[in-house]
Amino acid sequence: MSETAETVNTTAAIAENTEADENRVRTKRALPALLTIFLLGTLMIQAFNLVFQNVGDSLGMSANASLISTLPGIVLGVVCMLYGTLCDYISPRKMTLFGVGALIIGSLLGFFGASNFWAVVLARMIQTAGGQVAGSVFLVMAMKYLSDKERAFYLGVFNAVYYASSAVGIFAGGLITSIDWKYLFLVPLISVLLIPQVLKNTPDTSVKGERIDAFGIALFALIAGFVAIYFSFPAAWMLAVLAILIAVFAVYVWKGSNPFLSRKFVTNGAYMSVLLALFVFYFFNFACVPIYNVIGDQIYQISLKQVSICLTIVYLVATLVGCVSGSILSTIGRLPMLVLSAALMIVGSIGSAIFISSGFWTLTALACVFIAGITMSYTPLYDSFSATLPVDQNGRGIGIGDLMMNTSASIGMAVYSGLMSNQSFGSRGFLGVEPGAPAQAANMFWVMGLTAALALVIVLIFHRNMSSKAPKNQ
After folding, report:
1. Nearest to residue 172, comparing CAs of 183, 161, 162?
2. Is-contact 105 126, C-beta < 8 A?
3. Contact by Cβ (8 Å): 364, 313
4. Which parts pass through the membrane (predicted)?
5. What residues contact residue 429 under an 8 Å CB cut-off, 6+ apart?
6. At what angle do helices 117-145 and 148-173 cross, to 10 degrees?
7. Chain centre to alpha carbon of residue 109
8. DSSP secondary structure letter of residue 471
9. Is it the case that residue 13 has pLDDT exceeding 50?
10. What's the CA gap between 293 and 441, in Å, rounded?
């Protein structure tokens, strides 16, 4: 090699290292702003999960109120899968600015369109899509630019902030007894103050990535959306449309040139079994908040503000469990942790069904047990994805997991809403529970407990897939 060529290579290497160091420094400076924007977007999810029925009632759309929660949940699942890939095409800075812009548009639309139910639903969908951008960019930047030690620290912070934002959102939702609920929409506008820090510190780099299968993702999202909407607007024609969409998607997966869900994905039994477990574990994730609104109002006649304070405590427990879940996984392993998670969910839900009339603080303690189980399941389930897929498919697998988790919770919310709006569901109670509101809530907890038991059965049946080592690249 000539001296000139060596000089060129050395110069290029120095420039590359300098750029990497610069991106690392800028990333660490940008992460607090990204985390704050993510928090502002995420807290709105739980805030409206708590008060969606109140909002629907005030707009004369009680029967359809769950759409305020279910449709943004579908959007959340889709964008979680999308944004990680988009960061390979678009710079983190531009992506974050897009997210802040969506938060602002959604906030203003929700506030000024608060008299129209469908404007509120659309605003929540836009807010949800915007808030998730910062979270996805946060994760991508942490993985790309930080050292192993720094990455572990920031990913732990990310997990804790997610649950902390849920606690803040629930507390904010409880304030609607003191203020008009439309003012909740204005909370994410605080993100405007963080734009200068995003512009200054977020790296403006991009890397070419795999072509996005827009058609496949859109078709899959449409299927998920139809499933969720069906439970709020049941109609035979929707089932027919759903069957057609599923058939088209199946043909596309088998015959398409490069579908985002390839045939290898569909036929990977180990991965699909973990996906099934995730679906069942998180089925009533969104519903575990609004049921306490019903219990507080109809059984104990306590204010929404008091309910929100109790639920804030519940989500602070979830925050703590999220912080230590990595250490628990390292200590006992995936399978025992998933068994423990399901057991906690069973105890929390069945206990709530039995002690429905024993006091709201008793139910709050049992809610802490239930939410600890859901929270604890996240780490071993997502860690199992890496064990069932080759390394080069992990990103797509996790993205599909995000979609499944949020779609499952949205469908679960629709099922919950349908059961709780059916008066006959509370016509009979078990183990001495009185008919009416107490029986209705207790029966809902029985359903949640049986679902958790099903999750445990799935884990025990497919335990080998959840305790195996990662396969080699194929």
Report:
1. 183
2. yes
3. yes
4. 33-52, 64-84, 96-119, 153-175, 181-199, 211-231, 237-254, 274-294, 306-328, 335-356, 362-382, 441-462
5. 435, 438, 439, 442, 443
6. 160
7. 23
8. P
9. no
10. 11
Which H or E element spans position 241? helix 236-255
Minimal CA–CA distance to 440: which of 419, 409, 460, 469? 419
- The pLDDT value given to residue 163: 77
pLDDT grade, residue 370 (50/70/90)?
very high
Q: What is the pLDDT of residue 456?
A: 95
Residue 279, SS3? helix
Sorting pLDDT into bands at 50, 70 and 90, what band is 51?
A: confident
- Helix locations, 202-235, DSSP H: 214-230
Residue 393: its pLDDT value, please? 63
Helix 304-332 × helix 3-58 angle, to 10°: 140
Give 415's contacts (C-beta < 8 A, 6+ positions apart): 231, 283, 287
* Verdict on whether the full-model pTM lies above 0.85: no
From residue 124, give the alpha-carbon distance in Å to each of 130, 139, 264: 10, 23, 35
Please, are residues 374 and 285 in contact by the beta-carbon 8 Å criterion?
yes
- Distance separating alpha carbons of residues 141 and 128, to the nearest angstrom: 21
Cα torsion through 81, 82, 84, 86, rounded to 10: 170
The residues, ordered by sequence, that sit 6+ positions from 298 with a Cβ below 8 Å of its Cβ are: 437, 441
Helix, strand, or coil (residue 265): helix
Which is more confidently placed, 159 or 278? Answer: 278
Average pLDDT, the chain: 79
DSSP for 22-77 reads HHHHHHHHHHHHHHHHHHHHHHHHHHHHHHHHHHHHHTT-GGGTTHHHHHHHHHHH
Q: pLDDT grade, residue 165 (50/70/90)?
A: confident
Query: Over 60: is that where the pLDDT of 152 sits?
Result: no
Structure tokens at 39: 């928090």
Closest CA to 464 of 343, 375, 334, 374: 334
Q: Is the predicted pLDDT of residue 415 greater than 90, yes or no? A: no
Structure token pair of residue 370: 């239930």
Residue 246: Cβ-neighbour burial (10 angstroms; 0-12, 13-18, 19+): middle
What is the Cα–Cα distance from 101 to 126, expressed in whole angstroms?
10
